[in-house]
Description:
The structure holds two protein chains of two kinds. Chain A is α/β, with parallel strands linked by helices. Chain A contains 14 helices and 17 strands.
Amino acid sequence: MSAVRTFPSGVHPHDEKSWTAGKAVQTILPKAGSEMVFPMSQHIGAPCEPLVAVGDKVLLGQKIGDSEKFVTSPVHSSVSGAVTAIRKAETPSGTSCQAVVIENDGQDQGVKPKDDKLQSLPDKAEILRRIREAGVVGLGGAGFPTHIKLSPPPEKKIDTLIVNAAECEPYLTTDHRVMLEMPDRMISGFKIILSLFPGAKGYIAIEINKPEAIEKITKLVEKESNIEVVSLKTKYPQGAEKQLIYACTHREVPSGGLPADIGCLVDNVDTVVAIQRAVLKERPLIRRIITVSGGAAANPGNYKVRIGMKYSDMMEAIGGFKSDPYKLISGGPMMGVALFTLDIPVIKTSSSLLCFTEEEGKLPEERNCIRCGKCVDHCPMRLMPLDLNQYVIHNEMDSFVANHGLDCIECGTCSYVCPAKRYLAQSIRTARKEMLARRK
Amino acid sequence: MRLVVTSTPHTRSKDTIEQTMREVLLALAPATIMAVYYFGLRALLIILLTMAASVAFEWLYQKITKQTITALDGSAAVTGVLLAFNLPVSSPFWMPIVGSFFAIVIAKQLFGGLGQNFLNPALAARAFLMAAYTPLMASRFTAPARNLFSLSVDAVSVATPLTQMRESPFIPAAGDILNAFLGNTAGCLGETCALALIIGGVYLLIRRIITWHIPVVYTATVFLLSVFLGRSGLMTGNGLFEIFSGGVMMGAFFMVTDYATSPVNDLGKIIMALGCGVLTVVIRFYGGYPEGVSYSILLMNLFVPLLDKYCAPRVFGVKKKGGAQNA
């Protein structure tokens, strides 16, 4: 194993992983008769059109939404049952879109799964087709359709593939559990995507706070000459794509560019497992492993949940709350979305549900900037958050852009370290959204 | 279920302004103790009076202007102690009060309060007192009496080592350097004991309140330039004597490093410290005052916005050296 690698700057938040790191993944099944909600947009790109109508009978694993557009990803039913409605629904990302609502009949009647024992890998086009048809998207949170990511334009020569197993967000432990419980699937999935880029070097990048996972995976890839396990320093945001690539390769994704511009592709642990299932078994993406954690959760743990199951049903199935939650977060505490209701479904990109007590979730008041420079010291993009914050406050958007406000990765490090508790990341994010929208 | 919804991040570090200021006050404790040891309880009285007056003026100003009261966040207290450290022990008791008014109301609050002032408040007040009450500030230094309970002022004024040096340059003996290091010399309350200031400064470094850039570059610049230029010709200077005398150590750890009035990025800090060092030596050797620390810092304070702008780090993924830009 080589030396521990990392990127400059960043922070060391309390990792809070001990709540769930030791908890094996438990499968939660939706109850018969429960309502399952499948938003037609669980990815970046064009939303799907429903392929079913109210009253239709659907099978487990049946495609219920797809689109003709190029950047898109189909949606499948994770249960068998009947379509009861097609309506607007809220998603954990804080948006709303059209959704297919299915009443679960509890039978799990499925499309017959294909033979597990595939003798040799299908050709490249077939691999990509299977990944697309299975609805695989980036499960790390962004939700970019994987088949598109894996087919970069020919002039972009990909020589490095990275499995993002940093899991740098506090509380989250799903990638950790996947690596411990199904390392073969992850490695097999990784080999599939490596086969798409002959000659490319593969890295599996894991933070050193998961020593068992590093040990296990290292042993399993010992004989693979083109796969290397990289130990990463435990530091936030180590799992941010640009910082991860830098740690592994010392290359910088150019401002405004994509990893493919410097010959790199990054996929999350769970995405790689989904690729394995999609290509070898032609199984669609219908489940998601979720960490439920925080002081208000009765049974913190890692749960395998059907996509489409409502958070409220999931919480009921795992024992609900210990105390009234003060704040609920879909995703990690640094970048996750605060929820205003549990009446929303688990989607492809859901990674966790954090149930915070007031003590954990109460945020302090904003004060005067004391110019301590901590935000500048810690910013992984080497921005000057205190200045960007002032540009936003004074509505000097030209200065905001000229000083690389759009390069912000919204990791929240600046707000985290600020002793004056200024809403740095919050203001920068708002301005970024606005400026990016204006550019379109 | 009543849920709170906010933007990310949903968690924060434990650092607060109060905590930061408490650390600075703690770092100033060794120098305070040494000030009392050398100059007696009168020194403590002046320090407490300046602190109290600074906090009171901040409170009053915020009350009158109907702002949120943050006078107890510790920043005014730090300014108070630093101002007191810049006064001679013989100062009449009204001086800390006038000084605090200038520091807090004129230099800090009128420019927007915490973090918004462009001049170091304690040094601005010192400069004001120096200009307005020159005899009281500049020529009433007394030798350390080491008489703890004496509140009265020794009638005999003595020259500070830097004044002596200025009037007739001498080659400092080992004893002179040791006295400067330990603070056993005439001078302002808190600046004489280099050792105590270094202890406090190292504490700030360990607690990551400040970074190494300013103390190291500033001290090294004063040291090297003093040796090179020399008081009696090139290469005749004594670097150790120069950095342990006067306000260099207080400047290096507590004054140049003032958050509001120093650059936020590393290169800016280095240039700022370099500029302060050069100016300190130039004023000491060729200027009209025996000591140049405070004016060097006040002058360099004016460059902070420029340093912030042109020393911005290269943004990740951006090829050319960026620097802040105006569109």
